[in-house]
Amino acid sequence: MTHIQFIQNQTNIAPKSIEATIKLLSEDCTIPFISRYRKDQTGNLDEVQIEAISKLNKQFDEIIKRKESILKSIEEQNALLPELKSKIENSFDLQELEDFYLPYKKKKKTKADVARESGLEPLAKIIMSQKNEDIEFLASKYLNENVKNEDEALQGARDIIAEWINENIFIRKNLRRMFQRKAEISTKVVKTKKDDEAAQKFSQYFDWSEPISKAPSHRLLAMLRAEAEGFVKLNVAIEKEEALDFIEENIIKNKNSDATEHLELAIKDSYKRLLEPAISNETLQEAKAKADIK
User: Fold this and answer.
1) Which H or E run includes 266?
2) Buried-most residue among 59, 89, 142, 148 (CB within 10 A)?
3) Do 255 and 238 share a structural domain?
4) Containing H/E element for 258?
5) Are residues 257 and 146 in the same domain?
């Protein structure tokens, strides 16, 4: 995909107009100048359309650079399989690219890493297979100097499963959509700051809640300022049960398996500890970016 195709897909502006605008921008022409004095070249584009082209052109460059960085990093780990390489090369969505990269990202040692080092990944795979196995008995086969009893073995297996769920691209993508459509942004006053004179200008947000998709830019930015100054705690969330039900529908395939109980626990842990904090923050940052533009 080229710059022009990428921009056209998101704006429906004619390719010739996009090409001419990019050329003018590369010559350091300002947006007002192009809009006013180069209508014959751009096909009468207004400032809003030209600004959109400018932003999308920069975004395309960012995507290409990020792709190159991700491909290089995964290749250095000898993990760049042809299918994954193709998916990365064909994606032009930054969030999707980060989802592809997530399992290969260098991070601090996780609970799942510790469990793998203790030899518990095969047990996690057995639980995920959801066959009618005696899970408690199978767990006893994985005891060692780091895993003292069956409960520790099962906990470690669930830690691994929680990470797998967190790295599931389909689940992340759909949870992201749920947050974009249904998330509520709420604020609660920090009790020790409630009576501060400086906090009073934010008193409206001492106990506030509304859909983040409908929050006006000025109000969202005010809430963020109130949080930055330490007067309120801010939260972005969707109904937890709806999220858990969605994940369970896509992970649990056999409700009669001994594995079901462990999968339910792993799903709850994955959502609370990994998925919700990450996607909540993504949703807030995306809303802030839009608010900053307006």
Assistant:
1) helix 260-270
2) 142
3) no
4) none
5) yes
In terms of Cα–Cα distance, which of 61, 3, 54, 63 is closest to 27?
Answer: 54
**Given 3-state DSSP classes, what are the helix, strand and coil percentages for the chain, each rounded to the nearest 5?**
70, 5, 25
- Output phi, psi for 186, to 5 deg: -135, 150
What would the mean pLDDT of 17-28 be, rounded to a whole number?
93
CA 202 to CA 229: how far, in whole Å?
Answer: 10
Task: Tell me the pLDDT band of 199, cut-offs 50, 70 and 90.
Answer: confident
Provide the whole-model pTM.
Answer: 0.82
Together in a domain, 255 and 165: yes
In this structure, the answer to whether residues 195 and 230 fall within a common structural domain is yes
Instruction: Return the pLDDT at 187.
Output: 95
Q: How far is the C-alpha of 21 from the C-alpha of 15, rounded, in Å?
A: 10
Q: What would the two tokens of residue 262 be?
A: 């462990």
Q: What percent of the chain has pLDDT over 90?
A: 83
**Which of 64, 86, 104 is the last residue before a domain boundary?**
104
DSSP state of 102: G
Could you give the angle at the alpha carbon of 249 between the alpha carbons of 243 and 255, nearest 5°? 125
- Kindly report the average pLDDT of the chain as a whole number: 93
105-109, long-range: CB within 8 Å, 24+ apart, which pairs? 106/73
Residues 97 and 24 in one domain: yes
Q: Which of 66, 291, 95 is nearest to 175 (CA)?
A: 95
Q: Which residue range is the domain that position 170 belongs to?
A: 111-174+246-277
